Amino acid sequence: MVEFGLMNPATSQTTLLQSLTIASPSARAMRVASVCFLTALTAAAAQVSVPLPFTAVPFTFQPMVVLLGGLALGSRLGASAQVLYLLLGIAGLPVFAASPLLPQGLLRLVGPTGGYLLSYPLAAFVTGLLAERGLDRKYAGSFAAMLVGLAIVYLAGATGLSLTTGVAFSGALAAGVVPFIGADLLKLVAAAGIVPGLWSFLGRRS
Predict the structure, then answer these.
(1) For the chain: N or C, fewer Cβ within 10 A?
(2) Structure pTM?
(3) In terms of Cα–Cα distance, which of 123, 96, 125 is closest to 112?
């Protein structure tokens, strides 16, 4: 079920999105719009994909978008955007990465890249949860939160790749994780400063 509610009141920090909308009379509508925008951005990132000859897993910008979305929107909204993304894909919309070998629709989720896709709601949720604990206010904390989310994507992706192809888990790591680590870390290095930078800008304006 897609959830557009507020974050858990037991958390000690507001998310960036909450801070931007807390005084707005249309805060709920803005949260819904933010979830839909993140869903669309995830789908758009999937279209920028580079197939690799040695693995069924293409190179895409999706993990960065998923993690950055969780960081900015928080756990529940970040995860909601990814659940919505998967539902659109299951419905047959062409939101998954284009591939001459892998089908669109539900079958994509039980294929070699299904583990990566299915991990997106959890990765966004955990990254958002860490943001709600204040890790999104500084660069090091944002990088750490996104790194934890990336580890979830890697673990789920390699597990799914192993189960669907029959290769050992170590082989799935070698084919579906190791080739992407360098590029993904570079993307995190670049992206981790975005949310803290926005917090800093808001602080100067207040």
Answers:
(1) N
(2) 0.88
(3) 96
